[in-house]
Amino acid sequence: MVGSGGREHALVRALLASPARPRVLCAPGNAGIAQEVTCVNVAADDVPGLVALAQRERVEFVVVGPEVPLSLGLADRLQALRIPVYGPKADGARLEASKIFTKQVLLKYRIPTAAAAFFDAVPPALEYLRTRAIPIVIKADGLAAGKGVVVAQTLAEAEAAVREMIEAGRFGASGRRILIEDCLFGEETSILVVVSGRDYVILPTSQDHKRVGDGDTGPNTGGMGTYSPAEVVTPELLARIDREIVRPSVDAIAAEGIDYRGTLFIGIMLTPEGPSVIEFNARFGDPETQVVLPRIKSDVLALLWAASRGELAGEQIAVRPEHALCVVIAARGYPDAYPKGDVITFPVSLREGVSILHAGTARNAAGAIVTNGGRVLGVTALAPTLRAAADHAYAVCEQIKCASKYYRRDIGARQLLRR
Ligand code: AMP
Ligand code: GLY
After folding, report:
1. What span, in angstroms and rounded, lies between the C-alpha atoms of 171 and 165?
2. Whole-model pTM above 0.85?
3. Do residues 153 and 229 share a domain?
4. N or C: which terminus of the chain has fewer CB atoms within 10 Å of its end residue's CB?
């Protein structure tokens, strides 16, 4: 397992639950993952180091969590050595690494998405802005850890974002190319699809909470909490998403000559006119994975293995009817500056169905578990109702002690209030 976040902790748990009883190694992992499997201190973006580790340990299967090693060609290198890997090669990871490439694919194959134009110079971008409605969305082309998107509420804000990206190069060289995209309105949902060429399996639906503050306020983050299922995606709507978005996207990727074997994460806006693609990611979502995997009754290792081998045709998964909810505990200040090294104290026991997944944690010199990242923990609960899942998760959030502890109080509220 490659990676060190809550997503990877959830994946490690799912792999360990397989009847195949695998021995799991994680690089680099975190303090929580290290309580369950062997962690090796090789960074997730150190492609030569990871390849050497896989060879040295005679690893039989690599599951890649984050996007960076994928876009750096980790899957290409492993495949060349005949080491099976779950996660796309660099050509497939471009669907996340270049928003312009993705938009071109979506437009070429007439997959529903917002109208957009591409720029690498300020004057034509400003000219285009004046022809569009406000709010308007400005996106840097390259990977920006979820920060390269500005939903501008005024023309001035849009112009400032354009200048910051193209002139000031706030998101690096690739971020000097931008995309100006019409704003979509509606509720968002994350559709995770296990893809193997033209075959795929859609995983249970979920909804993320991207803004840092209650009531969807404040800056965008990597995700502050999730729940599954997202009931806003009714079976009829999911069938429409499959027909209009998933099937055409998987076919488009194959038609572009990409042999995609990994997770295709489709961010979708449920607009009044229908579902529309916001983005593709080339990996599992974080914290979507923390609520999606616990609801899968089937062997997740077997599923990912089949996808990596091109043997996904006809695969189906059994899904638990229970609701899952994950509250992310962050270090206060995230997504901007935040402290590290605060000691965390955990409850002595957890009720059935509740788990604490680690994200940014480490051990200090004294052996205590301390904060070591912006998103620190994820408290996940599986229960017969979403209300119960929320109650169980929040009870544990209160019990966890940590000086810089911060979490949203309203994860799942949208679905709970709709009832
Ligand atoms: P992304 O990095 O593409 O996931 O964008 C981050 C967030 O910005 C998304 O989760 C949406 O909330 C928002 N966003 C991106 N594109 C649009 C759009 N065209 N209309 C409205 N909101 C958007
Ligand atoms: N939670 C959103 C993401 O993983 O990109």
Report:
1. 6
2. yes
3. no
4. C
